[in-house]
Design brief:
The strands form two sheets. The chain has a six-stranded antiparallel β-sheet with strand order 5-4-3-8-7-6, sandwiched between helices. 52% of the residues lie in helices and 17% in strands. It is an alpha+beta fold.
Length: 279
């Protein structure tokens, strides 16, 4: 039984490391970073990383010595995308958003009590903001897309998320304590879209709208980021209009994909329609 528990613990730790490597995306992760984030000692982290490398899930760059997702991880991700293809469903919308607004658009998804940026579509405006990159992770409520997803959750789940993230919010995001996020959630619900007025990176503003699955649960968010001078009223409402339109397109694709699983929950559909037609 002890051996079985130890084996299970090793699997859990290895999968945790795999997820951490994935969060660093194209930048790669140094061993020291993975040790710090995982709380494992260096020999244990290295041993588990070697096991992941043998499986093809992780690879190490020979020059930088940083760890990246491996070829097998790509294969598994490609297979999974056939079922969980939110990025594929959102690509046309992301391209249209960046073309119409000239600003950078993003797709973020929920991972537990955190939000992960899945994709970044560059805009053409000469001055851009680089506060968010693919693979970046923030607690739910931190950042425009992340806040949009949090605001789409029921109140009791919002409180559960804030309680789980309380320590990381106070340590790493002192400008966004739980009290402030609660206020931002209420403001996002009242407006119908979330707004980040340069709270994470100065002069980098963002606006976001949640994407909901056919059962009404938020599965992701589309957002737009720009320098502060391009995110003032009345342009906020203009950008929100574009986001609402594209989120509706993605949600309709999701509804068709999961049509066999039952109809949309009426209160969610009515709520979205009310918010979007109010702009």
């Amino acid at each position: 039984m002890i051996a079985e528990l130890n084996g299970s613990q090793s699997v859990d730790r290895a999968l945790g490391l795999l997820a951490m490597v994935g969060r660093h995306a194209d930048r790669g992760a140094a061993l020291s970073t993975l040790v710090e984030e995982s709380g494992l000692n260096k020999p244990t982290a290295r041993r588990l990383l070697l096991a992941l490398m043998r499986a093809g899930l992780v690879e190490q760059d020979e020059e930088s010595r940083r760890y990246f997702l491996g070829e097998e991880a790509y294969v598994l991700g490609s297979l999974a995308s056939r079922r969980f293809g939110l990025l594929q469903l959102s690509m046309e919308s992301l391209i249209r958003l960046s073309k119409r607004t000239q600003d950078t658009s993003f797709l973020s998804v929920r991972r537990g009590s955190f939000s992960v940026c899945l994709y970044r579509e560059e805009g053409t405006y000469p001055v851009r903001t680089h506060a968010l990159q693919a693979g970046f992770e923030h607690p739910l409520g931190v950042g425009a897309g992340s806040l949009a997803m949090l605001a789409a959750l029921p109140d009791e789940e919002v409180e559960a998320v804030l309680a789980e993230n309380d320590q990381v919010l106070r340590e790493s995001y002192p400008m966004l304590p739980p009290e402030r996020i609660r206020q931002d959630v209420e403001a996002a619900r009242a407006r119908g879209y979330s707004l980040n007025p340069g709270l994470i990176v100065a002069n980098s503003w963002g606006i976001g709208v949640a994407i909901c699955s056919p059962d009404g649960r938020p599965v992701g968010a589309l957002s737009i980021a720009a320098i502060d001078s391009r995110m003032q009223e009345p342009r906020q409402r203009e950008l929100a209009g574009h986001l609402f339109h594209e989120v509706r397109q993605v949600e309709e694709k999701l509804a068709r994909m999961f049509a066999s699983k039952g109809p949309l929950r009426e209160p969610i559909a009515i709520r979205h329609q009310t918010r979007r037609t109010s702009l």
